[in-house]
């Protein structure tokens, strides 16, 4: 069916607005965790389940969208998902206990889970293959800009208003999107003739696999990676996934039609998308942490520093969408991955002496890189398969992104801890009492500090205050070196994406 240009872009605007809100909510809640913790009188371990609950529920309910799209079309599921998200956002903002908030976050995750697969499937339906890249360039604004905006907006709301408004701000955009979809989007339910039954066995096994995998990724650092809890969760997750893969070939209408991976470009794009997710969510998670914990910026100021990346993405993502028809997606993906890798490598030289230019310039380079990645990756992923496989493609792309993002967070978090210990031991081994710099520094510290020491300080500290000072300095330098290693590793891994992109079969769609 041929759709008018105004209809296409009006629907796109509604979907992008709501998706922007969903992605904004994910990053904005992260910033608000400390304020929620103090407001509800809970510890950090318990409060983190506000994020974990959403992550698990949204990851679990992405894959059922394959069946939902085939069975019920796009309009009814979109209306239900938006309604669930808006209502649960209101309830989250009104929560007065942690258990209430966690429960409503689970509901919010169910609503948010459907937006990306439904949105991708909808764009594949109303936009022709040669038009999808431009549409994806606009869609990228919601996907890539929202997380950076969320850091700034979240910092502002938590510092100057109240954490409850991080949920209430979802209401107006959600209601506008809901009304627009109800009035404008065509009703496609009656046209569906799919008679397959829902794969409950596959869904349960997949839910066990990905649910416990998300627990491992989110709780690994808190519970310790070598703890019994984490190892048991890993075992249950592995059993779930292995059982899922063993059972699916014998299901008449499986949750996932694995024949989709017979399409070469889709398989390669899935791998590239995974590498991108590892870099975006794995390494990028540490940028605001570095700015706040190492360089002592407030959450709001850290958000402002990261903002140029969001602006650059908003500028270059639509440009990449337009260039796609001329160059093909392969070239743009290689450029995007390379620029993203360079930006991480630029961050590998950060120190306490780094000025704002040294921090912001890599953000701009990364923004250009990410801008050149999103539309080509998603467009190629959808264009690589026939229309019959669009529901699978639109669900597999986001779910594999979630899995690889979790792997990235867990991997780089582990590397950070290991390297902090490594560099601390390295620096500490060079400190000796006979070192002339140590002796001179020790004398200066004693001269300035001894007269000001609190009488309650333990005796050995009064005798050797410089030891404590030097210990803190060594820890500080070790932390900086560990973060630099993280950024260096992220850059090298991101370069792999450019290498994988060389295998893509380049296709150009002339407009």
Which structural class best describes the helix and strand composition? mainly alpha
If helices are DSSP runs of H or I spanning 4 or more residues, what is the number of helices? 22
Radius of gyration, whole Å: 25 Å
Helices and strands, in N-to-C order?
HHHHHHHHHHHHHHHHHHHHHH
CATH homolog superfamily of the largest domain: MFS general substrate transporter like domains
Q: In percent, how helical is the residue content?
A: over 70%
- Main β-sheet: number of strands, strand sense, barrel status? none
The count of strands amounts to 0
Give the overall form. globular
First CA to last CA: what distance?
Answer: 18 Å
Mean pLDDT over all positions = 82
Number of domains: 3
Specify the CATH architecture of the largest domain. Up-down Bundle
Question: What is the top-level CATH class of the largest domain?
Answer: Mainly Alpha
Unreliable sequence segments: 449-463
């Amino acid at each position: 069916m041929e759709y008018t240009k105004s209809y296409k872009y009006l629907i796109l605007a509604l979907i992008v607005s709501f998706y922007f809100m969903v992605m904004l909510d994910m990053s904005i809640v992260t910033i608000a965790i400390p304020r929620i913790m103090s407001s509800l009188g809970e510890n950090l371990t318990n409060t983190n389940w506000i994020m974990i609950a959403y992550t698990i529920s949204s990851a679990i309910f992405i894959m059922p969208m394959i069946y939902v799209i085939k069975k019920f079309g796009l309009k009814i599921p979109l209306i239900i998902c938006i309604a669930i998200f808006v209502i649960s956002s209101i309830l989250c903002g009104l929560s007065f206990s942690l258990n209430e908030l966690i429960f409503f976050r689970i509901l919010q995750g169910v609503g948010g889970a459907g937006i990306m697969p439904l949105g991708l499937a909808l764009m594949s339906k109303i936009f022709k293959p040669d038009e999808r890249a431009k549409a994806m360039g606009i869609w990228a604004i919601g996907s890539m800009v929202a997380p950076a905006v969320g850091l700034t907006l979240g910092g502002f709301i938590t510092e100057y208003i109240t954490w409850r408004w991080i949920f209430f701000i979802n209401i107006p955009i959600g209601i506008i999107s809901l009304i627009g979809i109800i009035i404008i989007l065509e009703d496609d339910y009656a046209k569906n003739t799919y008679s397959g039954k829902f794969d409950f066995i596959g869904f349960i096994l997949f839910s066990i696999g990905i649910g416990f995998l998300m627990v491992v990724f989110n709780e690994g650092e808190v519970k310790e990676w070598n703890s019994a809890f984490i190892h048991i969760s890993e075992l249950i997750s592995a059993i779930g996934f292995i059982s899922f893969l063993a059972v699916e070939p014998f299901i008449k209408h499986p949750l996932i039609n694995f024949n989709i991976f017979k399409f070469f470009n889709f398989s390669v794009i899935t791998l590239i998308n995974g590498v991108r997710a590892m870099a975006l969510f794995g390494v990028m998670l540490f940028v605001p942490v570095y700015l706040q914990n190492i360089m002592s910026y407030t959450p709001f100021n850290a958000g402002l520093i990261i903002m140029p990346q969001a602006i650059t993405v908003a500028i270059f993502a639509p440009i990449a969408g337009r260039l796609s028809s001329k160059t093909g997606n392969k070239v743009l993906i290689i450029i995007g991955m390379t620029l993203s890798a360079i930006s991480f490598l630029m961050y590998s030289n950060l120190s306490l002496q780094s000025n704002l230019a040294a921090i912001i310039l890599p953000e701009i380079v990364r923004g250009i890189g990410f801008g050149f990645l999103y539309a080509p990756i998603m467009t190629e992923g959808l264009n690589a398969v026939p229309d019959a496989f669009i529901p699978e493609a639109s669900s597999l792309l986001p779910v594999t992104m979630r899995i690889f993002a979790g792997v990235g967070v867990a991997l780089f978090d582990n590397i950070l801890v290991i390297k902090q210990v490594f560099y601390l031991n390295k620096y500490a081994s060079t400190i000796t009492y006979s070192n002339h710099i140590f002796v001179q520094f020790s004398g200066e510290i004693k001269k300035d500090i001894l007269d000001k020491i609190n009488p309650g300080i333990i005796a050995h500290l009064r005798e050797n205050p410089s030891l404590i000072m030097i210990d803190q300095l060594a820890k500080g330098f070790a932390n900086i070196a560990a973060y630099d290693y993280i950024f260096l590793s992220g850059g090298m891994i991101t370069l792999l994406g450019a290498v994988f992109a060389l295998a893509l079969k380049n296709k150009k769609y002339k407009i």
